[in-house]
Amino acid sequence: MPLLGALIVVLGFLGLAKALGLLERNFRVIAVTRSALSVIGDRSLDDLQKETALQQKARELLVLFFSIIGISLIALGVPLGAVWALDALNLLSFQAVIATLTSAWFILAGVGVSLLYFLLKRGQGKESQEHTPLERTLHGLAFESWFPRVPLSRLESQLYRKQFSGIAIERPVFITALPRAGTTLALKLSLEINEFATHTYGDMPFLLTPLLWDRFSRNYRDSGALSERVHGDGILVNAESPESFEEILWKEFWPSYYQADRILPWSDARYPAFEAFFKDHMRKIISLRSQQGKRTRYISKNNLNIARVAYLKEVFPDATILVLFRTPLQQASSLLKQHRNFLRIHQEDSFAREYMADTGHYDFGQNLRPVDFKGWFGKESGSDPTTLDFWLKYWTHTYRYLLDSRNAQVQFYPFDDLCQHPRRGLERLGQILAVSQVDPLLDKVDRIRQPKLHPVDRDALSSKVLEQAEDVYHELQRVSST
Fold it and tell me: What per-residue confidence (pLDDT) applies to 364?
């Protein structure tokens, strides 16, 4: 009977806590606290702006504190009141129930059940076709808001400092663009040259501790057979394939830039704590990949780096920022197709949506958060992203912003020219990246294919929007040929 009473208290508390949103409020406290820390370290804000933002965060935390206390008292008081009533009816002993609740074995059992619940929670919903149950469980653990990703990464840095401290961050390469511009192919081609290191699928889900995760997983990790990635674009991947996971780092240190419906562009104001962390992470990736050959330069493909080109130029003055582009109608049509594709995928597979959001892929589907260059999205917030007009506007504002950020470090690269003239395009790529040998690139001429053209109804588009896009495209062609 004491065990039954203890279960009534625990299950009653959990049921009421869930119904009243206690867990969500606790996670919100973590999110608000991290956002406040981001505000403190944001060098783009002056003292008055920081004070205003922190006051708002403090008010929100105060409201959360009182609501958590109130809900906790209700959730615990109601089942304890029920047990007290049963004690008054001589159906069980209130003191015996309290003794059971506070016993070591009951607490340990509760902790074990709770941990199992949290690990499996992220795997609920329809079965994911891309990830096994174990992968979903590990991902759920790695990306829970309470998981200490950054502290563990700093501990890893202390443990492995001798292994990577001598690695210099020299001439890194950041491949970026609005999606569907050929960035994945550019990354894979660049890695044919044995001097670049980047993230792979095998670094997931503990991306911020790549050395520890590699040591733990190497004995049982299987590269697996190549299979087409979820985009349905013919690109085959396995655990050793390169991929865009760098955004996870940016999300950890800059949460205030990721708003509910959009992403804000970065300023060029410096953030030394992040920069030190990022450079250590780059050294770790180079250290891991250098075990497979002489890979001494960091390279990444990250579409959202379009939002922070000015910052990257400041932090890495010897970096090359490679910006790819296609003809606006074809790239916008491809963007629209993928957005519709991922709307379907996210509807059918909840884990696919969570996975992409956790890894910073806000390009398409239910996760869509456009970069609000110069406030364009705020002005066009009523636009329908299931229309070509929306994506053409996004394309225009993106590349106009990138053109304004151009200097010697920012190199624009026409994907269409690469497809039409592969050898010449690969030679140009080698020149931009300043590689020691261009022959490994030229050996891949046969891998270059013309992308499938999308049919476009030009009459359905605004003539003004189309004219603006074509003006930007002509400017991109001009600067990419110089």
Answer: 94
Is residue 247 within 8 A of residue 359, CB to CB? The reply is yes
Give start and end residues of each alpha helix (H) in 268-387.
272-289, 309-315, 328-348, 350-358, 376-379
> Three-class SS of residue 197?
strand
Structural tokens at position 38 = 């981001």
d(CA 224, CA 218): 13
Q: Give me the torsion for CA of 279, 281, 282, 284, rounded to 10°.
A: 130
What structural domains and CATH numbers belong to the chain?
2-121 (no CATH), 157-480 (3.40.50.300)
Q: Which structure tokens are listed for 361?
A: 């892929």
Whether the model pTM is above 0.85: no
Cross-strand pairs, 236:
228
d(CA 461, CA 463): 6
Give the model confidence (pLDDT) of 381-428 as tens digits: 668 999 999 999 999 999 999 999 999 999 999 999 999 999 999 999
User: Which class for 218: exposed (0-12), middle (13-18), buried (19 or more C-beta within 10 A)?
Assistant: exposed
pLDDT band at 123 (very low <50, low <70, confident <90, very high): very low
Q: What is the distance between the alpha carbons of residues 458 and 465, in angstroms, rounded to a whole number?
A: 11
The rounded distance, in Å, linking the Cα atoms of 405 and 183 is: 19
From the number of C-beta atoms within 10 Å of its C-beta (0-12, 13-18, 19+), residue 82 rates as middle
* Distance (Å, whole) CA 138 – CA 209: 14
Q: Is 463 exposed, middle or buried (0-12, 13-18, 19+ CB in 10 A)?
A: exposed
Gap between the Cα atoms of 10 and 16, Å rounded: 10
Q: Which of 238, 232, 161 is nearest to 204 (CA)?
A: 238
CA distances from 417 to 40, 257, 324, 343, 482 (A): 45, 34, 11, 31, 14
Strands 410-414 and 196-197: unpaired
- Interatomic CA distance for residues 475 and 153, integer angstroms: 43
* Residue given tokens 């896009």 in the structure block: 469
* Cα angle, residue 182 at apex, residues 177 and 184 outer, rounded to 5°: 90
Identity of residue 80: L
